[in-house]
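User: I want to check something. If I give you two sequences, will you return the structure for each one separately, not as a complex?

Assistant: Yes, each is folded on its own. Here is the first sequence with its structure:
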Amino acid sequence: MSFPPQRLNAPDPATYNARQQEIHNEIASGPRGGVRGPLAVWLHRPDLAAKAQDLGKYCRYDTTLDPVLSELAIMVTGKVFGSEYEWQIHKGHALKAGLGADVIEAIRVGQTPAFPNREQEMVYKVALAAHTERRLGDALYAEAREVLGDLRLVDLVGMIGYYTLISLTINIFDIPPMGDAPERDLPDDKA
């Protein structure tokens, strides 16, 4: 399947101003090891890129959530937004963190996965409700507090918000998957 052309390419490094170069170097020297996708597009506004990169670094590497729970929330967000680039980048991270291939596939095809524990089930429920209902009902909120605790719930909501920003950037600027992607990894329904 072909993808539409990217609407806004990253700035050309040969034309970077001093602030763009500074932020580019900061991102590239960090744990991401490069500047790609939404972060590259954000370099048009280097202060946005810097602040988003800081938030992203926290959400990705420094929260109270185990990596498997973080990646689960990212996968749900990528699926809800139909963000192929995000799905492509994080599928491998999710598998490496220990998220089951069966769970990932169920999310991809729009089915409710069978989770190995309550924590994963709760992260899925919270992430899905946050995107589809834009809130948590009282019963789900109480259950999330019981299973995850307040600190992890705060981090989860922050992570969902950050990856919503990522997904919107990907979708609005038509950032395509990396490399050769002959077919979509997400169904076209973008559920």
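And separately, the second sequence with its own structure:
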Amino acid sequence: MARHNPCPECRSTDLLVHDNIAARGTYGPDLLPGGSKWYAVPRMTAVVCRDCGHIRHFASKDTLEKLSADRNWKKVR
């Protein structure tokens, strides 16, 4: 978890991490469209700061590889 420390908002090191979260739910939005096929859900990791509440999400390596092949994702310039 060292790559997530410290919090970018308050610089705290009191962080919690949760791996292997589904990025698409039955009632919620698809947070990583194109990150998987219809039968597989893209995965991500969440990191939350216990001091300020800032939350960050990181796509899994498998999902990142699939996103580069999806034409709807554009490079930020």
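Because they were folded independently, the notes below concern the second chain alone. The radius of gyration is 14 Å. The chain has one helix and three strands.
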